[in-house]
């Protein structure tokens, strides 16, 4: 069955369409400078064929999420999922033939590239029984298939180029029809651009891009000047799904709109002399001193009821608290502060050794001091108070200190016994942060954040805290989950026998 997608009108007012069946077999390349109407063209194409074929949209700017309101697309907020969940989502998208928008706008550029590469690769690697026809639209394709490495590291570039090449070169047999849009052909990898058989070329000013566009359209150098004179929303089309000869098309109207700023002029606000300056500088120092919130994506529109259970993954992790983003530059560790001065207890009072250890643990900066220094202070305090301490050696002191600084000695039985049993075999220098994680897991409170874990570990270095968590995870004592937005969550497997 042949279905024609109406994308606009020709110079004589005739309808210009795209043969959907032919498009699925031959792919499409859209090119045009910023403001030429590429996104408008893609939106028109997607709206006209919505409901007739599955649509998968890689959206780095969040422009196409509004399709969910009118056509039921499922919006996947990439920043809310881990790498493994992104791959699983892609597999379920193919299995259930859901039309989706992968919204990448809340991620940094390199995170966008990695996330899109993982998603596209998982689409490509779907099992043969899920090879249903689907349009895969990649906006700003020069980001994901760059002609040169630029500032991207080699690993990310290999990953994304492989994914885009598979989509355009080998995707047809798997039912994937790539539609790539780019601002500049010179920035798009040639292996990706060369696999498209259909072209829609918009306004272009640079000679190198204009000449490449003219070559793809089969136009000579003199005819190539037409590309520079195109107006916004005007494209030259060629290909088996469009026309056997270059044809001009004025893209038609769309029913939805993007989330970008308005294109028209808006009157400036009126203000009396000095009022605007006062508005800008009022309480500026106080505002700048406030902590900036972590950038998070707005909640995506609710997916269709018949797809929600099929695509959405369980997101509830009760023992989770996000930490600061892992991509923030690590702070330089501050010098350990000296212990706060305190009055020595009266000799002969006979205080319990555990009370003395707790007092040391509560002193400022105690966790940053060497264990030998803390043990010497413990011995001095015991002599001053007349407390017998010969039965407590350095290893036992370190474990008692970890229990005190983590707050374990303040918990009630039987939780305390269960936590002590669960922490059996943990190295002394890791014990305090691990006990804090166990306490949060057993009591149902929020997990300690990165700063608190660093204090318990005796380090202000985020990288050392990450290595601590990786070590505990390799031992099977915790499960660390990090999403593309940089948020980390920690879960402690609890043995139901001792919980």
UniProtKB/TrEMBL annotation:
Residues 328-344 have a biased composition (Pro residues). Residues 320-351 are annotated as: Disordered. Residues 24-191 form the AAA+ ATPase domain. Pfam families: DUF87 (PF01935). The keyword DNA damage does not apply. Keywords: ATP-binding, Nucleotide-binding. InterPro entries: AAA+_ATPase (IPR003593), HerA-like (IPR008571), HerA_central (IPR002789), P-loop_NTPase (IPR027417). GO terms for molecular function: ATP binding. This is ATP-binding protein.
């Amino acid at each position: 069955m042949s279905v024609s997608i109406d994308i606009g009108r020709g110079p004589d007012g005739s309808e210009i369409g795209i043969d959907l069946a032919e498009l699925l077999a031959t792919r499409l390349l859209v090119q045009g400078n910023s403001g030429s109407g590429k996104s408008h063209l893609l939106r028109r194409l997607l709206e006209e064929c919505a409901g007739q074929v599955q649509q998968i949209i890689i959206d780095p700017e969040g422009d196409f999420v509004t399709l969910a309101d009118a056509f039921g697309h499922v919006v996947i907020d990439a920043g809310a999922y881990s790498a493994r969940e992104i791959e699983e989502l892609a597999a379920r998208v193919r299995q259930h033939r859901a039309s989706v928008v992968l919204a990448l706008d809340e991620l940094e550029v390199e995170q966008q590239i990695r996330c899109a590469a993982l998603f596209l690769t998982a689409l490509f690697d779907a099992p043969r029984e899920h090879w249903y026809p689907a349009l895969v639209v990649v906006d700003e394709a020069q980001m994901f298939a760059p002609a040169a490495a630029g500032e991207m590291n080699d690993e990310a570039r290999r990953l994304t180029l492989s994914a885009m090449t598979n989509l355009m070169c080998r995707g047809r047999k798997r039912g994937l029809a790539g539609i790539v849009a780019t601002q500049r052909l010179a920035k798009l990898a040639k292996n990706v651009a060369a696999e498209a058989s259909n072209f829609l070329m918009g306004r272009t000013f640079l000679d190198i891009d204009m000449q490449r566009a003219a070559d793809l359209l089969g136009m000579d150098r003199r005819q190539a000047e037409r590309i520079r004179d195109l107006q916004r929303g005007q494209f030259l089309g060629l290909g088996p799904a469009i026309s056997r000869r270059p044809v001009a098309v004025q893209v038609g109207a769309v029913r939805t709109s993007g989330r970008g700023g308005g294109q028209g002029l808006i009157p400036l606000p009126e203000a009396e002399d000095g009022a605007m300056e006062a508005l800008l500088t009022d309480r500026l120092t106080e505002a700048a001193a406030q902590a900036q919130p972590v950038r998070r994506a707005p909640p995506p529109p609710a997916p269709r009821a018949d797809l929600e259970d099929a695509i959405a993954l369980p997101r509830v992790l009760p023992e989770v608290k996000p930490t600061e983003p892992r991509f923030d530059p690590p702070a330089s560790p501050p010098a350990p502060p000296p212990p706060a001065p305190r009055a020595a207890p009266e000799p002969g009072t006979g205080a319990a050794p555990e009370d003395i250890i707790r007092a040391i643990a509560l002193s400022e900066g105690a966790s940053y001091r060497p264990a030998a220094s803390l043990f010497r202070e413990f011995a001095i305090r015991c002599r001053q108070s007349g407390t017998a301490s010969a039965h407590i050696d350095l290893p036992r002191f370190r474990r008692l200190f970890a229990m005190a600084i983590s707050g374990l000695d303040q918990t009630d039985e039987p939780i305390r016994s269960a936590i002590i049993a669960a922490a059996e075999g943990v190295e002394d220098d890791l014990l305090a942060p691990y006990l804090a994680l166990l306490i949060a897991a057993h009591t149902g409170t929020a997990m300690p954040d990165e700063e608190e874990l660093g204090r318990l570990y005796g380090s202000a270095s985020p990288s050392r805290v990450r290595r601590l968590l990786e070590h505990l995870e390799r031992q099977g004592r915790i499960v660390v989950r990090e999403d593309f937005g940089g948020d980390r969550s920690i879960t402690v497997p609890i043995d139901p026998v001792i919980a």
